[in-house]
Amino acid sequence: MEAPKPKIFNILTIDGGGIRGLYAAKALEQIERQYGPLINSFNLICGTSTGGLIALGLSLGLSAQQLANFYSKRGDKIFPRKHWLTRGYGFARQAFFNGYSSKKLRREVIAIFGEELTMSDCKVPTCIFSYNISKGEPIVFKSPHQHADYVRDGNLPIVDVAMATASAPTFFRNHHIDHDHLPDTLCTDGGVWCNNPSLAGLLEARTHFVGNGKPFDSIRVLSISTAPKPSGKQRKGGGLLRWKGDMMGAAIQGQSFFANRFLNNLNDNPESGVSYRRIAPKNLSIEQQKLLEMDLASPKALNQLARLGTDCGQHFVTQQAAWLSSVFQ
C-alpha cells in the first residue's frame, strides 16, 4: 500500500520597508499572473510594516496588482518627495519628532481597506507584527485560525492593525489602540523586532499547524524582500541628526539577515521539513542603490522600484518554476 503524500503548509511572508513595498507588490504580481490568486494556495500570510499592509490586502482578497497600483499612485501621499531646501529640516524633524503625519497614513489605509473590516474578515490565517510600547514587548495580531483555538483579535479593526504595524518610529507617531484586550495601548512598527517575518511565520506554523498530531507534515516558506536600502556608507561625525534613522536601519537589517540565514540553514537540511525561497534583488547598480531610500517616493524612484520588482518576480517565476508549481498545485 502506497504511503500517503505529506501535507505541506505554505507560508508567504513580506518584509517591512516603507515605499519599497512597491517592489514586493510588483514581484508578487508576477507570480499571480502565472499562477493565480495567492490566497488560494498559501495557508498563512505574514507581514510587517509595509509588508503588513500588503499581507492584509492579500488576505482580504485584493490582488497584488491592485496593491502595486496603490503604491504607484498613492505612495507619494504617505512618503512625499522632499525638496532639497527642506531636507535639513527633515533631518531635525525626524531626530526630535516624527517625520510624517500619521493622519496621512491613516487616510491612505482607510482608502485601501475601509473602516468596517476586522481581522475576522481575512480569508486566510494572517499574522501581522507590531511592538507594544505600553508593555515593552512584541505583539502579533492574528486572524482567527481555522485549525487553532485562536480568536482574540477577531474583532480588532483592520485599520488599527495596519496602523500599528506601519507606524515606523522615525517616520510616524505611535498608534494608539483602545480595544477589548488592548486598553490604552501604544504600538509602533513591527520592524523594530521582526522586519523579516519569515522566522516568526515558521514558529506560528510549528506551534499550531505542523507536526505530530497536527494537520500538516512539513513547511514551505516564500519570503519577499522589499529591496533593502544599502547602508555601506559610514556616517562619520554625523551625530544624532544623521544617525537616528541609520541605527534603526542597522537593527532592522540585522534581524532580516539573521532570519534569512536561519531559514537558509533549515532549507539546506533535508531533515528539517522546511523548504525556503526568498525573492530579493542582487547586484544593484549605484543608481539603484541611491534610489532605495525608505521614504523617497519620487516618480523616478517609484518607476525604478516597479521595474526592479517586476524583473525579480519574473526571474523567480522562471528560475523556480518547479518549486512554485508545487506550491500552486
From TrEMBL:
Any one Gene Ontology biological process term?
Answer: lipid catabolic process
Pfam (any one):
Patatin
Q: Where is this motif: GXGXXG?
A: 16-21
Residues spanned by motif DGA/G:
189-191
**UniProtKB keywords:** Hydrolase, Lipid degradation, Lipid metabolism
One of the record's GO molecular function terms: hydrolase activity
**Boundaries of each PNPLA domain copy?**
12-202
* NCBIfam families assigned to the protein according to its UniProt record, in alphabetical order: CBASS_lipase
Name-wise, this protein is: Patatin-like phospholipase
